[in-house]
Amino acid sequence: MAARSSSPAAVAAPAWHALSPDAVAQRLAVDPRVGLSVEEAQARLRLHGPNRLPELPGRSAWAMFLAQFASLLVAVLAVAAVLAWVTGEFADAVAIAAILLLNAVLGFVQERGAAQALASLQRLSAPTARVRRALAVEVVPAAELVVGDVVELSAGDAVPADLRLLSASALRAVEAALTGEPEPVSKTASADLPGGADLAERVTLLYQGTSVAAGEAVGIVVATGAGTELGRIATLVEREPEQATPLQVRLESFGRWLIVGAAAAVALVFLLGLLRGHPLDAMLRTSVSLAVAAVPEGLPAVVTVALALGVARMARRGALVRRLAAVETLGSTSVICTDKTGTLTVGTMRVCALVTLEDGEVDEVEVEGAGVEKPRAFHRGADLEPVAPHAAHEALLHAAAGASTARLAPPGAAVQVLGDPMEGALLAAALAVGVDSEGLDAREPVLALVPFDAERKRMAVVRVLGAAARSHVKGAPEALFARAARVLVDGVERPVTPEDLARLEAANLRQAALGRRLLAVARADAPRGTFAGDGGTRDPEQALTLLGLVAFVDPPRPAAAAAIAACRRAGITVVMITGDQPATALAVARDLGLAEAQAQVAHGRDVESWDDAVLAERAPALRVYARTSPEQKLRIVRAWQAGGATVAMTGDGVNDAPALKGADIGVAMGLSGTDVAKDASAMVLLDDEFATLVAAVAEGRRICDNVRKCLLYLLSGNAGEVLVMAVGVLAGLPLPLLPLQLLWINLVTDGLPALALAADPADADVLARPPRRSDQPLADRAFLGVLSASALLTAGVTLGVYTVALAGGEDVAVARSLAFSTLVVEELMRAFVFRSRTRIVWEVGLFSNARLLFVVLLSFGLQLLVQHVEPIARLLGAVPLSWPQTVLVGLLGAVPATILELTKLLRRRLARRGAGGAEVTQD
Ligand code: ATP
Prior knowledge:
Elements: H1 8-11, H2 21-27, H3 38-48, H4 61-67, H5 72-86, H6 90-124, E1 128-133, E2 136-141, E3 150-154, E4 162-174, H7 176-179, E5 185-186, E6 205-206, E7 211-223, H8 229-234, H9 246-275, H10 280-294, H11 299-316, E8 319-321, H12 325-331, E9 335-338, E10 350-358, E11 361-368, E12 377-380, E13 385-387, H13 391-402, E14 407-408, E15 417-418, H14 421-432, H15 440-443, E16 446-453, E17 458-465, E18 468-475, H16 477-481, E19 484-489, E20 492-495, H17 498-512, E21 517-527, E22 544-553, H18 560-569, E23 573-577, H19 582-592, E24 601-603, H20 604-609, H21 612-618, E25 624-626, H22 630-642, E26 647-651, H23 657-662, E27 665-669, H24 675-680, E28 683-685, H25 690-730, H26 739-757, H27 781-807, H28 812-833, H29 841-844, H30 850-868, H31 870-875, H32 883-893, H33 895-922
Parallel strand pairs: 9-23, 9-26, 19-22, 23-25, 24-25, 26-27, 27-28
Antiparallel strand pairs: 1-2, 1-3, 3-7, 4-5, 4-6, 4-7, 8-28, 10-11, 10-22, 11-12, 12-13, 14-15, 16-17, 17-18, 18-21, 19-20, 21-22
Helix pairs in contact: 4-6, 5-6, 5-10, 6-11, 6-26, 9-10, 9-25, 10-25, 10-26, 11-25, 12-25, 13-14, 18-25, 21-22, 25-26, 25-27, 26-28, 26-30, 27-28, 27-33, 28-30, 28-32, 28-33
The structure holds adenosine-5'-triphosphate.
């Protein structure tokens, strides 16, 4: 696709940045206040097509197929095939080549399936846009935007198309994707620009592919899809390659070691064989067999399958994995740093108390009601004395509503909040005192807006008030107390005294100790033309008149406490990081069982005063960070990482992006999260639930367990085969197994059960043991112990059968067939042993992995065919066995699995005795 094949409209596009907003609206035939009509939008969509970038060609199927051959394991098999051909073993050579092909096809099918599954998951998180259509604000898929649409944006939004700004307040955009400039740049709706201004100088335009770093904006779509600036260069932009996950990298290096080891073993046996006087061509043939025995053919497919299955399961549970590597990292997560609002709590705010000043007193009134509906009643004190709302409440809630930008959706059956849920609750409460937000903007037009940001923790809206202007301000209590010059007492403004502030602060702490969130509300009056943004210079957030406090409840999520308890059992530390004040945060943390004492809470101010070393030293004792700025999140992540922890961090705001990137796993909120946060994250929680995150951690552990099981199963199988072959040859016996028989074992009786093990359900104790450290080697001591025990047992029994048969005067072909079948039975039985490290097959449940049971039975059936149908036996260089021999093979084949299971029981008994002994000594 050529870079210039954009639509004709784009070729003739005027210099939008140089036109006034009115001129743009006129040319695009839209009234900015109303937006396009739904029919018009549909008509334009049909005419110009969806707002999508031209598709980049994906990795072609051929490239993916050929990539299957680009591995060392394959190289070894290829050499083996050539050797087989050279030594005249044409059947072996052809078989090995066929296996290579089959393996590549299998790998290709698996990988393609996984890639498609991931792609369809990504479509689930497709971006949306807030657009004005026929006077209403709708959220539509970004792909449905058309030229002329009026789009509303706020901090954290991805810009969904190229836009000419109609209005902007404190707007800053990150345009790194287009210009390479990492710092946010200021944007404005009104600037005189020459038609020939550079891309980077067009401050009146927002571009698709960039994002809003701060502020709010309304813009009109001037280009979509291929017509956007990004669309024009899209074909030049490199697609980010999918990185190999740490496990895949580790397996890769593991594979290299395996090859080196196997090559050394083959060389050794080859030399010793020659020294013992075996003929050269026989030794070459033996080397082929050994090489085939050593290569775990199923290995690469197994990891891909385990990861892909895990990703699909997580998605079903509401956790969208955006980077494959996250799946494994989740398994070793040892610390979860989580937001409070909306993640641990429900996130639906309700106004539950009002605090105003009376002469010498504070008046605390409880508000009864539900969610965003108008409150039902006000009452006071323990005996619930009913209260009629008075003038102070009216002033308080009027200013609170005036300082909000959220809207309640047109009064219908169910009230809905567009914007911040806390503001929605304020607007609903304001209804109870006769302040209707519906016509507020018309009655008191907005003159200037200082948007909320988490750093300042406050915001102001300047509105017309008769002939003058009034700044309505709301924010964190301490942020407003520090800016108060006056207070409203009994309906009269007077200068604020330290006693006033002390009384309000006491009320604030009382309310916060109940786990409530608090906002202070204030106002400031001035003649028109005084405030910044209204033609003057006065800061709308200075010299305020305090009106009182509003308290909100946001109950803990029902599943959060249980999930936190589960984390504790699983050895995972949960840390709450919130913008809320310490008293509120601690009360909620206590409710959830996350923290007990004041000493576990740190204030953002303290964190600021500590250097990184002090923070790293204190972090392990802290469970709650309050009044934290998003910038501190990254430092907290680093502090834990310095101690070797694997950290998952949740976030939703645009400022959270650095911490989300810096954490081992960044987790964005699907509902409340901004596009920027999602983009920076490895995982998205579709339901914003903390419990979902914990479920994903459990799933991550399961996947790591399963990869480990598969690895153990495959490698111990190969080690056993190598032992059988090497010892046999060194003992001067004829080849115990033929190359074709080894391939059969590796693929049919090893590969299939290994794939089934990759889908094994979680062990019951998956969340009852401490996390594995991510730097712990795959093959630790326990792993190597079980691997060698298993390899020695299988090789011992197989060689035993072989030598006894030979000593009993059996033909080599018969002895070999007996050894072959014994080994197959051993392998199949072992598959059940590796499902758990501690529990035996009955405890795990024979039927809990139906797929495994099925493939094992299937493989048994196939092996019976090999043993009893002459032509099939001959294909594999074997001879048919008698039924008594079959029974004998079955019994002997069960020996290694039985011994391994008995060892588990023995170890358990010893451990119990050890633990009992420890208790006694403790007493
Ligand atoms: P959490 O980190 O638990 O999710 P949060 O993200 O809601 O909390 P912030 O959004 O950083 O925390 O808010 C910090 C403080 O700023 C709040 O405790 C509140 O006092 C104040 N605040 C929040 N939203 C607004 C708003 N829309 N207008 C005015 N003040 C606000």
